[in-house]
Amino acid sequence: MSVTAIGKVNFDKEVLQSELPVLVDFWAPWCGYCRRLSPVIDQLDAAYEGRLSIRKVNIDEEPELADTYEVETIPTLYLFQKGKTPVSVIAPQAKSQVTDWLKENGVD
């Protein structure tokens, strides 16, 4: 399974208007740590199916989105939940750190 890439054109519909919480992975193809984290993101996409939507934003292709969300370090994960200010985790070190972060923010 592969997580869907999104950009500025579909960000509002796919993320901001989603009924489900949405995890957005801001990454770049040249980032070694981003590439190592990618399989974890894919695993989470399968594990949280129906409870969480996961999308990826390539910061090289979508610099405006990276600027809007003040992404300075990658990978940065943002959790968007309808009506709430998004929360982030920067460069998580393990899958458990991401799942704990999701749980702390109400995604089980």
UniProtKB/TrEMBL annotation:
Alphabetized InterPro entries for the sequence: Thioredoxin, Thioredoxin-like_sf, Thioredoxin_CS, Thioredoxin_domain
Annotated positions for site Contributes to redox potential value: 32-33
Gene3D superfamilies: Glutaredoxin
Coiled coil: none
SUPFAM superfamilies: Thioredoxin-like
Entries under Pfam families matching the protein: Thioredoxin
Site (Deprotonates C-terminal active site Cys): 25
Lineage: superkingdom: Bacteria
Disulfide cysteine pairs (residue numbers): 31-34
Active site: 31, 34
Residue span(s) of domain Thioredoxin: 1-107
Any GO molecular function: protein-disulfide reductase activity
Keywords of this entry: Disulfide bond, Electron transport, Redox-active center, Transport
Transmembrane annotation, as ranges: none
GO CC aspect terms: cytoplasm
Family note: Belongs to the thioredoxin family.
Protein name: Thioredoxin
Organism: Eisenbergiella tayi
